[in-house]
């Protein structure tokens, strides 16, 4: 009985001794690493083709941009640069009203340069045009020969290409990095079309029909009066004095003859 008890005690002691080193060698707990921060979302890129197709009457402008592949140049500026872009988009009516000069005779390169001259390779809000106007002329996407001049009068911004000087009629979008502004004229560049013709002279004012004409007959003449005005006196007073003198002369002669008969 005692040997069995001693045997059990020995086994328990061996178990305790075997488990002690394992407990002592157990690695300490370490805090789990914190998760890395999520990457910042990529900025929303404006699709210029979609914007111009739905934001206003710019179908003609967009068609020319696509035909010359200028739309790809503009879109690349939006997607891959930090400067952004500012586009002046003529309306469909601006193109339809353009008679002379016509765009029909332009080469592909000339048409491409004309379209490139409708944009600046940097984003500008409306408020920034006041400072931009002090840097005139401003080079466009088309290069050094293709410039625009700006003026800002109490927030009314005008864009001058040499042939046209339209005001910015509305802001289609103005959120960095894209600004698109509507204009009512095509910005024809001097580098392609030469100097603009001088403005036509103002028409002569219409005659004021409410004032009597110098050639109109007088009231007496209109009524058929038989006594014409004297050439020396417009109002006929000299003629009246001559008639009165003649009558007086005959009266005196008559009185004198009567006195001689008495």
Please give a structural write-up:
- The chain has about 260 residues and is an alpha+beta fold.
- It has a domain at about 50-195: FAS1 domain.
- It has helices at about 1-25, 50-55, 60-70, 70-80, 90-95, 110-115, 130, 190-195, 220, 235-260, and strands spanning about 85-90, 120, 140, 145-155, 155-160, 170-175, 180-185.
- The strands form 2 sheets. Strands 2-1-7-6 form a 4-stranded mixed β-sheet.
- A hairpin with a 2-residue loop joins strand 6 and strand 7 (about 180-185).
- The longest helix has 25 residues, at about 235-260.
- The radius of gyration is 49 Å and the shape is elongated.
- The termini are far apart.
- The model is unreliable at about 225-230 (pLDDT under 50).
Pick out its properties.
262 residues, alpha+beta, FAS1 domain, 3-stranded antiparallel beta sheet, 7 strands, FAS1_domain, GPI-anchor, glycoprotein, membrane, lipoprotein
What's this model, at a glance?
Its main location: membrane. May be a cell surface adhesion protein. This protein has 10 helices and 7 strands.
The best one-word shape is: elongated
Radius of gyration over C-alpha positions, nearest whole angstrom: 49 Å
Low-confidence stretches: 224-231
Q: Do you know the CATH architecture of the domain at 48-193?
A: Roll
The overall strand count is 7
What is the CATH first-level class name of the domain at 48-193? Mainly Beta
Q: Say which CATH homologous superfamily of the domain at 48-193 is assigned.
A: FAS1 domain
Order of the strands making up the biggest sheet: 2-1-7-6
Helix content bin: 25-40%
């Amino acid at each position: 009985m005692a040997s069995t008890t001693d045997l059990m005690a020995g086994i328990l002691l061996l178990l305790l001794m075997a488990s002690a080193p394992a407990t002592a060698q157990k690695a300490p707990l370490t805090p789990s690493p914190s998760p890395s921060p999520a990457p910042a979302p990529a900025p929303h890129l404006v699709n210029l083709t979609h914007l111009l197709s739905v934001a206003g009457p710019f179908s003609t402008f967009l068609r020319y941009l696509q035909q010359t592949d200028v739309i790809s140049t503009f879109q690349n500026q939006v997607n891959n640069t930090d400067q952004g872009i500012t586009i002046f988009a003529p309306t469909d009516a601006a193109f339809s009203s353009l008679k002379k000069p016509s765009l029909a005779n332009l080469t592909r390169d000339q048409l491409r340069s004309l379209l490139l001259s409708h944009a600046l390779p940097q984003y500008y809000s409306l408020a920034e045009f006041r400072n931009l106007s002090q840097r005139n002329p401003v080079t466009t996407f088309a290069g050094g020969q293709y410039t625009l001049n700006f003026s800002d009068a109490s927030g009314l911004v005008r864009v001058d290409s040499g042939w046209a000087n339209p005001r910015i009629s509305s802001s289609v979008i103005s959120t960095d990095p894209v600004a698109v502004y509507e204009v009512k004229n095509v910005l024809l560049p001097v580098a392609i079309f030469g100097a603009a013709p001088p403005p036509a002279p103002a028409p002569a004012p219409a005659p004021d029909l409410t004032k009597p004409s110098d050639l109109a007959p007088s009231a007496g003449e209109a009524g058929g009066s038989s006594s014409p005005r004297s050439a020396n006196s417009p109002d006929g007073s000299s003629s009246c004095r001559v008639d009165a003198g003649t009558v007086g002369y005959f009266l005196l002669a008559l009185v004198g003859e009567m006195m001689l008969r008495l």
